[in-house]
């Protein structure tokens, strides 16, 4: 499943790394492509969307 999320407080490469680790804690095979400039995050995962969103918000990020 491919997810397209907008994360307004994604500010830098460290933020991208944190979000990637949060997603991969739920699905170790997940592919995460994030752009701090556009605040867009593309995720390819087999995990449920709700689990991915919960992991990202638990890491301290807001999903628009």
Ranges where pLDDT stays below 50 over 5 or more residues in a row are none
State the CATH architecture. 2-Layer Sandwich
Q: What is the helix fraction of residues, given as a range?
A: 25-40%
State the end-to-end distance: 19 Å
Structure description:
A hairpin with a 4-residue loop joins β2 and β3. α1 (13-26) crosses α2. This protein has one domain (2-58): 2-Layer Sandwich (Alpha-Beta Plaits). A three-stranded antiparallel β-sheet has the order 1-3-2, with helices on one face. It has helices at 13-26, 49-58; strands at residues 2-6, 31-35, 40-44. It contains two helices and three strands; from the N terminus they run βαββα. 23% of the residues are buried. The chain is globular. The chain has 64 residues and is of the alpha+beta class.
Task: Supply database-style keywords.
alpha+beta, Alpha-Beta Plaits, 3-stranded antiparallel beta sheet, 3 strands, 64 residues, 23% strand
């Amino acid at each position: 499943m491919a997810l397209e999320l907008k994360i307004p407080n994604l500010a830098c490469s460290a933020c991208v790394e944190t979000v990637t680790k949060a997603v991969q804690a739920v699905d170790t095979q997940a592919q995460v492509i994030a752009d701090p400039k556009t605040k867009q995050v593309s995720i390819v995962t087999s995990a449920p969307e709700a689990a991915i969103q919960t992991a990202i918000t638990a890491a301290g990020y807001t999903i628009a």
